[in-house]
Amino acid sequence: MEILKTEIEGVLILKPKIFGDDRGYFFESYNRKLLKELAPEIPDFVQDNQSYSTYGVVRGLHFQRPPYAQAKLLRVVSGRVLDVAVDLRHGSPTYGRYVSGELSGQNQLQFFIPEGFAHGFSVLSQEVVFQYKCSDFYNRNSEGGIIWNDPTLAIDWGLPLQDVVLSPKDRLHPTLKEYTEAMKQGRIDAI
Fold first, then answer.
1. Which residues pair with 58 in a beta bridge?
2. Which end of the chain offers a freer environment for a tag, N or C, measured as fewer CB atoms within 10 Å?
3. Is 30 designated active site?
4. What percent of the chain has pLDDT over 90?
5. What are phi and psi of 163, to 5 degrees?
6. Is 25 a residue of the active site?
7. Distance (Å, rounded) from C-alpha 124 to C-alpha 121?
8. How many CB atoms lie within 10 A of CB 182?
9. What is the pLDDT of residue 190?
């Protein structure tokens, strides 16, 4: 496995070693011992999640506040997504910046996102099966979000605007500016 750094400290791309022949392929999608050697900052995981979505779906940008903040290890089983991580770590030199990359069943890349980030993805293929590991359990009272089309972030989700499909909840998240102001005023806790 190869560990690649991104332009934001702590966000990593994991490139597995794939063994393929005329029958298909094999690779280890997760090996805790190897990850501890290559990237000791990656925590242990306590929950695995899987989602299915169709073309145009945008999920995010989601996060959980402490004490239930989550690091995530994300991958696509089949299909293609644009995966996005936004730095919301209080005091970080890259606060409010994002990094993105394409994950697919073809490239088998994985995205590691540490605690303190909002996460989202857009579905670029007709269908996608998306899996991710979390370092803490889901807690409804600690969840939060940033609006997917925040003008400050200006994320290019790789989709025509008319094709975007959102949940009702994802339409209501605050902008990054509103979130930052609420945090500064102490109305919400920093992540």
1. 122
2. N
3. no
4. 92
5. -95, -10
6. no
7. 9
8. 14
9. 67
